[in-house]
Amino acid sequence: MPEVPSLRNLYTGFGKIPKKQNEFLQTLGEPHIDSFNFLLKSGLDLAVKDLEPVEFQLEDGDVIKFCLDNFQLQSPSVPTGAIGIKNQKIFPTECRQSANTYKGRLIGHLRWWVNGQEQTPLKREFGELPIMVKSNACHLSKMTPRELISHQEHEQEWGGYFVVKGHERLIRLLLQQRRNFPIAVIRPSWKGKDSCFSDMGIMLRSNNVLHYVTDGTAKLRIVHRRALYYIPIVLVIKCLVDVTDEYIYDQVMAGHEDDLYFKGCVLNMLRQVHDSNVHSHNDANSYLGKTFRVRVASELPSWATDHEISKYILRKTVCIHLDNNMDKINLLVMMVQKLLCLAQGKCRAEGVDSVMMQEILLGGHLYLQLLKDRLQLWLISLRSNIVKRQSQTKTVSVKLTPAELQNQLRRVPTLEPAMSVFLATGNLPSAINVQQDKGLTIVAENINRMRYMSHFRAVHRGSFFQEMRTTEARQLLPDAWGFICPVHTPDGSPCGLLNHLSKHCKVTSNPDENLVRNIPTILSGLGMLPLNSPVAQTTSLQECCIVMLDGRVLGHIHKNSIGRLVDKLRVLKVNGEKVPNTLEIAHVPMKSCKGTQYPGLYLFTGPARMMRPVVNLSCKKIELIGTFEQVYLDICITPEEAYKGLTTHMEISKTAFLSNLACLIPMPDLNQSPRNMYQCQMGKQTMGTPCHTFNIQAETKLYRLQTPTSPLFRPAHYDEVSLDDFGMGTNAIVAVISYTGYDMEDAMIVNKSSIERGLGAGCILKSDFVELPTTDSFFAKDPTNTQIFDKLDDDGLPYPGTVLTKGSPMCCYYDNERKRFQIEKYKGSEDGWVQTVRQCGSLSSSQTTKVNISYTVQRNPSVGDKFASRAGQKGILSQKWASEDLPFTESGLVPDIVFNPHGFPSRMTIAMMVELMAGKAAAVHGFVQDATPFRFTEDDTAINYCGRLLEEAGYNYYGTEKMYSGVDGREMNAAIFFGIVHYQRLRHMVRSTGAVDSVTHQPVKGRRRGGGVRFGEMERDGLLSHGASFLLQDRLFHCSDKSTHQVCRTCGTLLGPYLAVAAQAEGQGRKMKCRMCGDNGDVVGVELPHIYKYLVSQMVSMNINLKMELKEEV
């Protein structure tokens, strides 16, 4: 990381292709890519093995069994049999330009048995699934910057998204409950779940909740096919393993032998099961199997026994992360102990809204869950087709031969539609276990570099919490320090729910399995007592803490020895040789006082956890710490804050707790906190340089700032993310002065000559796709229409550089179905210039030809456009002021922007005042000023530093200058603050039209609906009283609901005219006729308010007809 910024764009090597990519930028897409690579490496195989085989019996008595095996997701390539293709690979840029999906084939094998005899497996293609860019299945993976550029990608491309129908779609990062850890929760809504239920429970993220019942018992909630079931905990234990009541009693009472409350509750639980006539392991399984037989009828064969059904339910719904039933019992026992401690007040409720109890749902993992669910549905669909085929041929017995199976396989739909719809819409088309099923994907908007980067680090709490009235889920708690940025969150309804990861926060991937297997052995060697050891059976556990690894109880350790074990384990973790360096070591100490968190040593190695680097002071090395373990560590920010014997870690930098965008704010420590939040939002709305490949872009809309400059006052993080490659603002000379009165209420005056020289000049790049209606249609110029000869080429497409005005021809093609030429016209209200014209190729003969036409619309600053400084000071361009009428300095400098000084006191943006001085000093001395926060102190202030630099250059220490009036040339009797500020032009540009009501076609009211201020009766009376009645036609007609309607002059009706279309063979055009008068009618167009047409239609519904009398226009 660079410690100070520099003018990289002045180096001789700036702009040259680097040999390797920026490592920091590559971390943006790393969590997304790692999760998808897990799918490719082992996740898909594990998901297929976990699928339930489908077994059923045919009417002829044959027993059929299906299962899937040996799956592979291939890289994108052209379809088999394509002619004339030299390179079989398909690259993302081809899909972007042709509005196609970047996808690869999913190949798998169907294994099947007939009466227990395995048949020859069938290789099957399950459709083409979207591939994540830069994953191991993408052709861009491991390419050098030069190779990426040769394939029309950016040199710093970091991937992590999907290309779906030409758009870059990103799966949201969702915060969810930490997996494999029982969390103590108090939730009042639980009281009404069942009789005697309390508000206390232990949650385990496999949809298991152990509820405390007020009669001293506990019930385990399981979820099967979105239905909730509550089962006594002892019944679950008896179903899992054949153990005695004495064993259950001893296990639950371990460590609590003297607690009479524990003893009474355990006896009640045991007595409750016996009262239901369940006494043994077989009784429990029979009871559970009979209860769920109806529920699993579509999942298991009809001949499945009660024990098999019970085993299936327990495997699918109870502690599903554990394969061993004994491990499940150990965890359930621990949950019972924790629940009873919570009920007694011995431990505190933890809750799921704190970051320490959360992790992230990654895109690749969600993609895999959906894919697994669709494969299971594919097997069920195949079974349904075969059974239906058997029922249709009752007279003739049809054997399931390989030929018959192949025939039925053709009738089963592929997985491609479901996966593509999920990524294109963000809606889950299945009932997988996720907290929300809508809004899971977003478009990776590339308005500018800041906006694009922020999408990959954004984490959302969930749309469910957006509708809640409580603020608990929105609160920023202390345990979020270093993981969630406290600055970068939007204002409004998503505030506190849509957050962003700090710049050094890392999302873990799957660790080395061999290192994870070593952990139990290492813990035993460091003093842990394993559960199955003879010593543990004879040792009192009252002074011992539980040791848990990824939700599996390993053993216990004495509270006096646990500190040394943690220290030694942390040294092994830092070295990363015997245990993973992403191991999270959360030591909750045992304390004598009540109301603390449930004690224990909790270890986590799983993926999707948030971790961040800090300096381990004992090892003098970088260590990754997690959200849970950070709460019990003492971390200092600077060496001076460390306390010997207490402080264990130190931050690697003072800005490590901020996100990427927050680190780009110049000196945010000198601003009022809301201003920093505003800048994080306005920085993402700035016109800039979104890409370097404008000539091949096919985006619907791209904003481009044509005259960007590199800021002279910027933090070091600016260079770390290579933001000079994607300029986003302009250095403007600013005079802080109240001048002319047009700068009140956040308005500002801009030098007209500066705008003419290119200040804030920008354009919008738009693209339109024109697709032919049929495969035998073709693009061509109509030889009979001479008006389009100078606009279109012989192929019916426009020349690059052609000016497009509203209604001008954009392309022409011959419609073979209608047997005539069709001209597509330009519909925009602003003039455009054709940039590129591309014909999009297709790999299938059934696809129609389409053309992409890209054009630019010039958008120079105009009155009403919005500008903002990087300190959150936004303003509206109120007037373009002539340069000769603006004040000027002694050296002849005329300001580009006149800023009202009243904007400083209420906003308290001291950083902008410092930037005025620092920008001027940087321009004079020729070097960049460092804007990294926390570099200055109260004794050594930034203002003093910049003031001294200005004095050395011969300017006033305070940054003020004498200025002369541009009107009469006299010196102004004031010291005017004058300097350079980096200004951003926001994409919110003024427009003459806005949202309109769909019924009345009049402008809507209210900012929430995208409307403005309505012009009502009082405003009308005000204009009339001033004698300006003609302005009413502009306000109430031309700028409201002016529209052209057809009226019959003969009968005066507004509803009678209609468009009569002649037969194609007659070769006649279209003609307006009147339903009342027929051919005798005279239909003309009249400009009317649309609300009048609406009134006429409403009156007609009441059998009242309104007629109009038309006169010739004088």
List keywords for this structure.
27 helices, Hypothetical Protein Ta0175, Chain: A, domain 2, globular, 23% strand, alpha+beta, zinc ion binding, 6-stranded mixed β-barrel, Dna-directed Rna Polymerase Ii 140kd Polypeptide, Chain: B, domain 3, 5-stranded antiparallel β-sheet
Please tell me about this protein's structure.
It is found in: Nucleus, Nucleolus. DNA-dependent RNA polymerase catalyzes the transcription of DNA into RNA using the four ribonucleoside triphosphates as substrates. Keywords: DNA-directed RNA polymerase, Metal-binding, Nucleotidyltransferase, Nucleus, Transcription, Transferase, Zinc, Zinc-finger. Belongs to the RNA polymerase beta chain family. Helices cover 26% and strands 23% of the residues. With 1114 residues, it is an alpha+beta fold. The strands form 13 sheets. Strands 30-42-31-40-39-46 form a six-stranded mixed β-barrel. Strands 1, 2, 3, 4 and 5 form a five-stranded antiparallel β-sheet that branches. A five-stranded antiparallel β-sheet has the order 9-10-11-12-13. Helix 23 packs parallel to helix 24 (942-952). The protein is globular and about 100 Å long. The protein folds into six domains: 23-172 and 361-444, no CATH class; 183-349, Alpha-Beta Complex (Dna-directed Rna Polymerase Ii 140kd Polypeptide, Chain: B, domain 3), CATH 3.90.1110; 506-650, Alpha-Beta Complex (Hypothetical Protein Ta0175, Chain: A, domain 2); 662-761 and 862-985, Dna-directed Rna Polymerase Ii 140kd Polypeptide, Chain: B, Domain 6 (Beta Barrel); 762-858, RNA polymerase II, Rpb2 subunit, wall domain (OB fold (Dihydrolipoamide Acetyltransferase, E2P)), CATH 2.40.50.150; 1041-1114, RNA polymerase alpha subunit dimerisation domain (DCoH-like, Alpha-Beta Complex), CATH 3.90.1800.
